[in-house]
Design goal:
single chain, Endonuclease III, domain 1, elongated
């Protein structure tokens, strides 16, 4: 795919959704970090229901520690793998309080040192909370990038690196959200809704299907 086509793809995605953002509910970097930690193998809707119970009671690292592991588990028990997630969140809160004055760090190494935080989660925090032009490649972005020809790669790191090289600078800040939302609602896994896709004519996918 050439640079002109990539530019047009993101131009249309921006026109369709000028201010894209995560569908997780958050108001502080710690709330976003908590929501993302809880989101593995869970829907954003499910996470938002859990955090709607949790955040009014505990939305800072110290408050989560004061809440205690058992009470934390009760607040998030509707989410899959809640036992492991609760333990990781408690460990993360200890580190944030002891090493970062209760604040979420703004560097990738410090974020990835937190329990349960990998490269993708760190990229989400850096991009969404701190405005860094990072791209967190999840299953949606991986699929859309390969299927459309935007940035083909055998693994998420290869796709991430290609996107960072090829996405025009003016679109880099929001590219992450546009691609996730496009993969979640239009370029879905089993039967992409090509008939209602704003970039259908630019997409290089061989198996297009006319489903709105």
């Amino acid at each position: 795919m050439n640079a002109q086509k990539r530019h047009e793809i993101f131009k249309r995605l921006r026109e369709h959704n000028p201010e894209p953002t995560t569908e997780l509910h958050w108001s502080t970097p710690f709330e976003l970090l908590t929501a993302v930690l809880l989101s593995a193998q869970a829907t954003d809707v499910g996470v938002n229901k859990a955090t709607a119970r949790l955040f009014p009671v505990a939305n800072t690292p110290q408050a989560v520690l004061d809440l205690g592991i058992n009470s934390l588990k009760e607040h998030i028990r509707t989410i899959g793998l809640y036992n492991t997630k609760a333990e990781n969140l408690m460990k993360t809160c200890h580190i944030l309080v002891e090493q970062h004055d209760g604040e979420v760090p703004r560097t990738r190494p410090a974020l990835e040192a937190l329990p349960g935080v990998g490269r993708k989660t760190a990229n989400v925090i850096l991009n969404t909370a701190f405005g860094e032009p990072t791209i967190a490649v999840d299953t949606h972005i991986f699929r859309v990038s390969n299927r459309t020809g935007l940035a083909k790669g055998k693994d998420v790191v290869e796709v991430e690196n290609k996107l960072l090289r090829h996405v025009p600078t003016e679109f880099l800040q929001d590219a992450h959200h546009w691609l996730i939302l496009h993969g979640r609602y239009t370029c879905v896994a089993r039967k992409p809704r090509c008939g209602s896709c704003v970039i259908e004519d630019l997409c290089e996918f061989k198996g297009k299907v006319d489903i709105a």
